[in-house]
Each structure stands twice: as structure tokens, then as C-alpha cells.
Amino acid sequence: xxxxxxxxxxxxxxxxxxxxxxxxxxxxxxxxxxxxxxxxxxxxxxxxxxxxxxxxxxxxxxxxxxxxxxxxxxxxxxxxxxxxxxxxxxxxxxxxxxxxxxxxxxxxxxxxxxxxxxxxxxxxxxxxxxxxxxxxxxxxxxxxxxxxxxxxxxxxxxxxxxxxxxxxxxxxxxxxxxxxxxxxxxxxxxxx
Length: 192
Ligand SMILES: Cc1cn([C@H]2C[C@H](O)[C@@H](COP(=O)(O)OP(=O)(O)O[C@H]3O[C@@H](C)C(=O)[C@@H](O)[C@H]3O)O2)c(=O)[nH]c1=O
Known about the structure:
Layout: E1 11-13, E2 17-20, E3 23-26, H1 31-36, E4 45-51, E5 57-63, E6 71-77, E7 79-86, E8 88-89, E9 97-103, E10 109-112, E11 116-122, E12 127-133, E13 142-144, H2 167-170, E14 182-183
Bound molecules: dtdp-4-keto-L-rhamnose (TDO).
């Protein structure tokens, strides 16, 4: 899953910023541009979260079918390491992940399709994340995997420090206890 390759189901999008003496302007979301980048998705909900301290970790989250969500994620204040984990049963990269820095400064957005888990850790204080979702929040379908599951082996860059977590995230299961409801669609994959 190399997000720089057009064959990857994970897409990185960086909308152009038009700078002038006042600052800048950008089209933060355009359906046709996303379609041109290989993303065919109808979004129905926008989310916005604020994380106060460095080392706040949310994830690894997903909703199960029929409420599964694709997400288009961007950071509008501060910086985070954003992670997408392949949870598609039968995928050659099942359990593996992509991690990239999203920041207010770099303006990158990451598109994560259905079948992937999502999580992030803050690397600056006062981080705001905005993301679009392709399905409504459904608490009964809300699920996740432990951030420190050894089978996921995600390097969050914490260097031994304990992250700030929700109670829910502390209780999430590991990959070995997880029976994935997501099917692998055969989309071409590349080594991470
Ligand atoms: C996700 C979500 C939560 N909530 C509520 C439930 C709870 O009372 C409060 C906080 O929810 P959480 O603790 O689940 O928030 P958080 O840990 O930030 O959950 C989010 O994490 C990132 C990584 C994602 O990818 C998101 O899809 C979502 O799972 O907000 C909604 O009302 N709507 C929503 O869409």
C-alpha cells in the first residue's frame, strides 16, 4: 500500500493553496478532483475533533458493515501521524498499515476506504482533525483494535511514553481476537 502509487486504495491528496498578501485560499474538498484521484465516494457526515496534548492517541477505529465508513482526513491545526490499517480479510497486506504526517502546514489529506482501520497520534499540542465520512455514526457498529497490538506493530513515535487514551481505546481487542467482516476486493497492492 504505497499511497504515492495510483494503484493503492489509500490516497493522499494535497489541494492547491492560492496565496496572496492576505494569506491563502484552497478548495478543501471537490468531488470531481477526488474522483480524478481515484476516489469514488459520497460523504454524509463531517467530524471535527480537538486533542489538547502531545501524545494523544485515538484509534484504531472503524465501523462494521452495513455502517462501514470511508474517511477523508485532514489536520487543520497542529500535526498528527495518521495511520490506516488494512483489515480486509484475505488481503496480502492484512494487518499492515500506512502512516503519514498530516498537518495544518502541509495541507495533506488522506483518503481511507472501507475495510481499513483509522487512528492517529498528535505530535503537537492543540490538534484539530476534520474528516468526512461516507456513512453516519452508528454506535452499535463502532469497533476498533488496540493501538499497541503486537500484530499491528505500529510505530507511533512515542519512544516508550504512554499515550493519552480514552477508556474505550484502552479496552479494545488485538488483531488475533478479531474476526474481520471486511472482504478483500482484489485491488492491486504494492509493498509498504
Ligand atoms: C465517532 C463519533 C463519536 N460520537 C460521540 C461518542 C462519544 O460520546 C464522543 C467521543 O467519541 P469517541 O471516543 O469514539 O471519539 P474518537 O476516539 O475521536 O473516535 C474517532 O476516532 C478516529 C480515529 C476515527 O477514525 C473516528 O471515526 C472516530 O472513531 O463522541 C458521535 O456523537 N458521533 C461520532 O461520529
